[in-house]
């Protein structure tokens, strides 16, 4: 029987300039849907999970188009609330060489911002659920979204459902002190935390480029150990990205289980579309852990999943388990399969 995974967040309309055009050059945009938690939901559905997505979308043709888009990838939309006036939007300009990618948000007053958590039947949402995944992006959208996240995580914790939280701090959405004030309560007693809450001594690692400063494993072990003790988290996890250019990166990842800090293999790769790579990583780790894999194997699979996502256009990682396992096993030549 497939595992039931619940994810929750905002589904966005993604408008991307063609090729590597600048916003100021664009006369058209390529339109698809995406968003951190939806990206996780699609990957898990692609892996054969019973993947449910909870959000609020407008009761109009654009909202229905977004619902249909999720359904086309096998995501279960039973818990989507309808209402509000608009879908959130983000505009993407894909960088190249020395020019970085850029994102512009247009999501104020979107449907989810006015969601009423009191009207959501969490008994039904979490019935027979094996895992709940959320991120720090949703509470950045306003007080009602903070209430939604708090009520959902409290319910899942009381029911003993395994929980993963991707901190996903977005400085275009809220200030760090506000983020920290909310998230320190959300991440208490969860199973997996992606990223870490900065202490004064480790703030330099919040947006680090490890191609420039290198990876100091002892520092990470101290940071993760403090995180685990402070918040009673089973696994603290992060990716380590090395930025050589907008289209050439390297990546590995770390997981800490309270005793051992394990680092995955490092991959060097070129980028077709970077958006959603962190979500592919989170989804890969959740998929393996919920199916009983050990933390090392889960991390290797998650890292390979993230690396492959960089080769896929759009928000979603549409690679198969066999393809990810092949990369994790060392097959990174990209030779034609016949």
From TrEMBL:
InterPro entries: Carb_kinase_PfkB-like, PfkB_dom, Ribokinase-like
Protein name: 2-dehydro-3-deoxygluconokinase
Residue stretches making up the Carbohydrate kinase PfkB domain: 3-315
UniProt KW Kinase keyword: yes
One term of GO molecular function: kinase activity
Domain of life from the UniProt record: Bacteria
Pfam families for the chain: PfkB
